[in-house]
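#lab-general

N.A. 3:47 PM
ok so I finally got the sequence cleaned up, no stray characters, all 175 residues accounted for. can someone with queue access submit it? mine expired

B.Y. 3:52 PM
send it over

N.A. 3:53 PM
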Amino acid sequence: ANPAHIIYEAYIDQDFGANKPASQISTASFQAAAQTLYDEGFGLSMMWTQETEVEAFVKEVLDHIQGVTFTNPKTGLDEIKLLRDDYVQANCRILTPDNSDISDLQRKVWGETANEVSLSWTNPENEKSESVVVADIANVANQGAIVASSRNYYGIRNKELAEKVAWRELRQSSY
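B.Y. 4:20 PM
back already:
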């Protein structure tokens, strides 16, 4: 299913979900996210068993798709935003010492980065977990060793999508 639809249903379902009124949700933001996910071929197959809170389930879906939900302070509506490179850099506000006060800035050093990601996904042909592994060879060379991290995105049921998400995770981990 489309992950934006999964989250929307988890929010509004009266029997199993959070039972939020649909009027409290920004339909436009969910439709936009659903279209982006559709265009990316990003479908998930997950079942919420109610053993966890609905919020934890939604967070798990958001982790799979690299998204966030929040209440828009202007409208009061719950929105979803996918973290994508979908902005115009020239339109971004530039922060300088004249217009901002940076009190705590931290940046990772090479030793705090991972240079290999192993991502587990579910093969729908046999319902077993499989893994894809991707590596940043420049980071490996810089650190002199493989520094591995792993992710379990069991809701992904397509190897091509699993590889794409593994590269996304590696870009974040190795930066």
